[in-house]
Amino acid sequence: MTKLEAVIQPSKLDAVKESLIAIGIDGLTVTEVRGHGRQKGHTEFYRGREYSVDLLPKIKLEIVLRDEVVDDVVKAILGAAQTGKIGDGKIFLSRIDEAIRIRNDERGSDAL
Amino acid sequence: MTILQGNSHSLYRGARWCCLLLLLFCGLAVTAQTVSPQQLADLQRQVTEARSNADNAWMLVSAALVLMMTGPGLALFYGGLVRRKNVLSTMMQSFAMMGVVTVLWGIVGFSLAFGPGNGFIGNFQHLFLHGVGAAPDPAYAPTIPMQTFMVYQLMFAIITPALISGAFAERMKFSGMLLFLSLWSLLIYSPMAHMVWGKGGLLNASLGGRFPCLDFAGGTVVHVTSGVSALVCALYLGKRKGYPKEQFPPHSVVLSLVGACMLWVGWFGFNAGSALSAGSLATSAFVATHFAAAAAALSWMLAEWLIAGHPSALGGISGAVAGLVAITPAAGFVGPMPALVIGLVAGAFCYFMVVKVKVWFGYDDSLDAFGVHGAGGTLGAILTGVFASRYINPMFRDAQGNLTGSGLFDGNAHQLLNQAAGVLIAWVLAAVGTFILLKVVDLTVGLRVSEEAEALGLDLTQHGEEGYSLES
């Protein structure tokens, strides 16, 4: 089982959700985060004082997947979230030791 | 009966009644005597009562409007400008005044301000509001109950110390603030109010003061005193930890905008209500107030647009407040066009004070109480001496009883000196008095929260609360 974490532009969330539903992925967790890689922030002014805002709003998706579908999901997310500009985000993949369904104590791939 | 028949039936009945009444009236007119003295006296009393009721209705509404300026107007305006962890404590500083000052005013504050005393302070004649009832006090407001006058003035006494909290936001102990502002209200506000508006007051232009200072609604009494006090507080307490290197942007300009708009609307009660009647002077002050606010909002936004590149929402509302501050002393003495000019100047001037002067000197007047109220009030008081006109509000007469000019453009250049006298006294009283009171509180209850508390936030450490709970 693989955990997929993707940090994407907030404006791409809808497109990514739709592309996941299209390939049959119906479970995901979404958090609002702030961050940056190489993307520059902006300056704001409040009563003449400059404030540089370099932690930009992003969306983080977390999905745990069966190993067989990981490539398709990555392709789907890349297709939906890519613009070609700095700030598009990143995808990270990691191993998952166990998955458990709380409702009925199912374990392993069946729990996904 | 059909509807048509029913209508014509009632029309017929109506016509019959009208004829009867007409006959009765003609009969009375023919037989009536001239009106008796008793009837005339009754009529006069009723007319006076009706006029008094009209004035009282407006004054009660005005009092409510001014209270709304503190809560929630100022509470929201200041609350939005601080960091999230301090929003409640900032709002509490305004709200607490609504409770504390009311009690103090009722017991002794009103008496010290408006009791007959000497040139500087009232007396204890109205201790516990003794003698303050339904009968008007002809020297102050001949057409409304003295109690109305008292409660209206109370709302001013409430908001003035609340304004100062803008200077020490995010680092003042609640207990220290309560003690400091209570003493301030009794020892700085009441004397200043007495000097400008009280019987025998040194600066009272309406009641023959030695230096008649034109201050319609409190440019010196409210804004200069609170603004200068704010500066002293900011200097005495010192900067917030991390200022100016760390950034503390407002956590909600939305709240501030809502608050500022409430201030604008409430200010009609503050300025137009200072006419103490519901006639054309109230209208004149209302109009001047509004025009100054609008012009100042535009001039601050324009200044910001040119200098910083964007007109901001915070800039617009700050400008409006600056204009309202500047027009406060002038509202009942100037026409709409001078009001526009006062607003235009105030917006740009206060922008400069807040954005340049504060940065140059480096004091942490957190919410710009000095930059807007102190500076704006001073400017407004001086411009009142420039634009005040006898044709808007007759104030001064010569030895023969002829009306003479009120301000510079009205042929009275001397008035500028009186305005300066009022401003100077306000500055000195506020600066010296505030320093002494801060020392007293510092040595007893303490002024500033600990560094740890400042980092955790005052909502949690002073009040045991969170403004916005993430868990519920």
Describe this entry's structure for a reader.
The complex is a heterodimer of chains A (112) and B (472). Chain A is α+β, with helices and mostly antiparallel strands and 112 residues long. Chain A has one domain: Alpha-Beta Plaits (2-Layer Sandwich). Helix content of chain A is 20%, strand content 37%. Chain A has a 4-stranded antiparallel sheet with strand order 2-5-1-6, with helices on one face. A two-stranded antiparallel ribbon of chain A has the order 3-4. In chain A, a hairpin with a 2-residue loop joins strand 3 and strand 4. In chain A, helix 1 runs antiparallel to helix 2. Chain A is elongated. Chain B has a single domain, classed as Ammonium transporter AmtB like domains (Ammonium transporter fold, Orthogonal Bundle). In chain B, helix 4 crosses helix 5. The longest helix of chain B is centred in the N-terminal third of the chain and has 45 residues. At the A-B interface, strand 3 and strand 4 of A face helix 9 and helix 10 of B.
- E-strand count of chain A: 6
Give the strand order of the largest sheet of chain A, numbering strands 1, 2, ... along the chain.
2-5-1-6
Largest sheet of chain B: 2 strands, antiparallel
CATH architecture identity of chain A: 2-Layer Sandwich
The side-by-side strand order for the widest beta sheet of chain B comes to 1-2
Count of helical stretches of chain A: 2
Q: N- to C-terminal separation of chain B?
A: 66 Å
CATH topology of chain A: Alpha-Beta Plaits
Succession of helices and strands of chain B: HHHHHHHHHHHEEHHH
Q: What's the CATH H-level superfamily name of chain B?
A: Ammonium transporter AmtB like domains
